[in-house]
Amino acid sequence: MSRLKGFVTMSSDIGYMVPAARPNLPSTDYINNGIYLGRSQFHNFPVCLDFSNLLSPTGILVGKIRTGKSTTAKAILIRLNRLYGTRVLIFDPHGEYAELVRSNGGIVIDMKEEKINPCQLGEGSSLTQKAHQLVDMLGTVFDLNYNQVYYFTKYAVNGFKKFGNNLTFNYIIDQLEQDSKRDSMLAKSVRAILTRIGLLSDTIFGDANSIPISSLTQGLVCVDLSRLDNNTYRDIAMLSILQYIYNDMLANQGRPSQINDKEEAIRLEIMIDEAGRVAADEKSVAARLVKESGKFKIGLMFGIQDLADLDTKIFSNYGFMIVHKLDNSDYISKIQKDANFTRGQSHLIQSLPVGTAYVKLNFKDAAVSRPFLVNVDQELPLLGTITESKVEQNLGASKPLRAQIPEIRTNRDTIGKVRDSPKLDNNLQQNKETTEIQQLQRKLAQDLIDNPSFNVTQHYDSIGVDSYRGNDAKKSLSANGYIKETYLKNKGKILHLTKTAIEEMGLKPATDRFGGGVHINVIDNIATKLRDIGHSVETEKKIGENSYTDIVVDSKTAVEVEMREFRHTNIYKNVGFFEKVIIVCYKKSQLDNFKTKLNNMPLSPERRKKVTVIDYPSLCRREKLLEVFGDARNTR
Question: What are the Cα distances from residue 522, in Å, to 74, 137, 390?
């Protein structure tokens, strides 16, 4: 009998293999309303997330890197905001959400450019409570021991009593350093951690918040943490904002002060991607927000690769869990045990394709739901292109909009039977969609030629598509090596076609002269700065047959922008026409190489004096611009 035991298999383990079965799908009453997530892998049923039916609005998205975890989160968050007007706050550690948020009329906060004071924790708590909250925050990030917690709490309480909400890290650190010189026990306790915490006062953590934290809960907002130097800064920034929101809700009886009081399942959805320490500590404000989520009517979503990044109290209080591909056997065993997975389902977790995930729902009425497979759909039918006015209208709507779910006609008596006509219909539909995608790719490629200075969002607006379909076309072109992306500050992502695209797609550039989108944006930026200081500027100035100069300043100075290589022809063609020639190399690292090549050119001393090489980052500084070109505002 013991030899046979290994071959015993429960019917629930192989149910997914039986065509006539309906594997683990909840009743349609539970999955037919709410935001559209995708379609069940078996029988192609539409699957929706209805937060009003779930035990809690807390969601857990777990999976390896590049398995579709963030893409699933984007679909849920944007659809919540777009269809119901739900406020959405995203903590984005890798810059993955920023472009999508911008394209949907949202706001992106680059924390590298902002200041935040973790001691300014809003209203709703006493000064003593705020002191404990601040120390809990530091303990979450720095693993303070008992003595360190005691001393930091003591000095934080004194600081809040003296300065109130104007307290800063500097005061606490200064007081600890001064007193530790006289108190050996204090010095021994805090010396190891004081230097690490002291570094916070010289970074983004300043004396005051440069942005009103309350504004982060007003609409669709992405807090971009990707440019911060390390995880400590990211964690403190996230915890500071979360603590402010928690206190704000306490002060307003569970309703954020900037959020309309509407009868909704949730008023605010917070996404914490790569949760790390922020959600791993039971004392963390993230864990407290999960505990109070029903009262506050907020939802928290956690994107994680490691289950150790999530406190057990959060893991046991989820309303929905979405499991993408995982390899770690310990994590899979924990999910199988805690989320009601069968052995067969657990084995499949290791081989899930990108974009396919197990969905586990916990319902308020205690209805038992086994996990089921869903192909997450990134092409939610949209009501036209999303514009800022449409987003504002959506945010201000007094009634939630119903999700637009495609109608599915299913004959339950014939489920599992082979039918030719649906299969044929599906093939025709797939062919139609493939043709549409190819046409969209070509439209986007042509727009890159017609409008090379546009950023990604402007291209999508130009060809009249929403960000979902536009991103699909962009990804396909990128996968084929047809386009490349570059990020420009204050402009966003710029796309430019490769030679392969022009050759294989049979595209015709308007002219051989014009460079890529980045090149054109650099020229435009320099021209704008020169006009601001009073100069007369012409761009793409024709100076001969098939010969152009990037910028001509006051009809006497030529400026040529070089993105990659130093080109002798740009000097030879301009040095005879103009009094001065400025060669601008795109990167600082190119400067020495450009100067060497210029010195090696066979130019007469008179002509050599006319030519100057400068790097673009330096030229963008106003003082350098004035040094090279002078201030023409008072001479006209």
Answer: 32, 43, 32
pTM of the complete model: 0.57
Q: What is the rounded CA–CA span in Å between residue 437 and residue 445?
A: 12
**Cα torsion 460, 466, 467, 471: sign:** negative
Q: How many CA atoms lie less than 13 Å away from 619 in the CB half-sphere?
A: 26
End-to-end CA distance of the chain: 102
| Cα dihedral 528, 529, 534, 537 sign | negative
Q: Find all residues with CB under 8 Å of 8, minimum gap 6, and list them.
A: none
Domain 517-629 carries which CATH code? 3.40.1350
356-361, strands of its sheet edge to edge: 46-49, 35-40, 372-376, 356-361, 320-323, 59-62, 298-304, 268-273, 87-92, 220-224, 107-110
**What is the spatial distance between Cα 139 and Cα 281, in angstroms, rounded to a whole number?**
9
pLDDT digits (tens, 9 = 90+) for 581-606: 999 998 888 899 999 989 888 888 88
How far apart are the C-alpha atoms of 484 and 462, rounded to whole Å?
19
Query: Phi/psi class of residue 259: alpha, beta or left (left: φ > 0; alpha: ψ in -120 to 50)?
Result: beta
What is the dihedral angle through the alpha carbons of 262, 266, 269, 275, rounded to the nearest 10 degrees? Answer: 150
What architecture (CATH level 2) is domain 51-109+260-395? 3-Layer(aba) Sandwich (3.40)
Tens of pLDDT, residues 338-360? 888 888 888 899 989 988 999 99
Q: What is the CA radius of gyration of the chain?
A: 30
Question: Between β-strands 298-304 and 320-323, what pairing exists: parallel, antiparallel or unpaired?
Answer: unpaired
Collapsing DSSP to helix, strand or coil, 211 comes out as coil
Distance of alpha carbon 195 from alpha carbon 174, whole angstroms: 11
Do 357 and 339 meet the contact criterion of CB atoms below 8 Å apart?
no
Q: Where in the chain is the domain with CATH 3.40.1350?
A: 517-629
Q: Where in the chain is the domain with CATH 1.10.10.10?
A: 428-504
Nearest Cα to Cα of residue 311 among 330, 342, 334, 287:
287
Residue at 488: amino acid letter: L
Residues 108-122 have pLDDT tens digits of 888 888 888 888 777
pLDDT tens digits for 27-46? 777 888 888 898 988 778 88
CA distance 572 to 560: 12
Q: Where are the alpha helices (DSSP H) in 484-620?
A: 499-504, 517-532, 568-575, 591-599, 605-610, 616-619
Q: Which residue has the tokens 């009517």?
A: 297
**Order of strands, sheet of 580-585, starting from the edge strand that comes earlier in the sequence:** 537-544, 547-553, 557-562, 580-585, 611-615
Coil/strand/helix, residue 272: strand
Helix (H, G, I), strand (E, B) or coil at 624: helix
Return residue ranges of the chain for CATH 3.40.50.300.
51-109+260-395
Tokens (6 digits) for 603:
């130019």
**Mean of all residue pLDDT scores within the chain:** 78
Burial class (CB in 10 A: 0-12, 13-18, 19+), 490: exposed
User: DSSP of 383-448, one letter per residue?
Assistant: SS---HHHHHHHHT-SSPPPP-PPP----GGGTTS--HHHHHHHHHHHHHHHHHHHHHHHHHHHHH
117: left (phi over 0), alpha (psi -120 to 50) or beta: beta
What's the topology of domain 428-504?
Arc Repressor Mutant, subunit A (1.10.10)
Q: Are strands 268-273 and 87-92 parallel, antiparallel or unpaired?
A: parallel
Q: With the C-alpha atoms ordered 503, 505, 506, 512, is the resulting torsion angle positive or negative?
A: negative
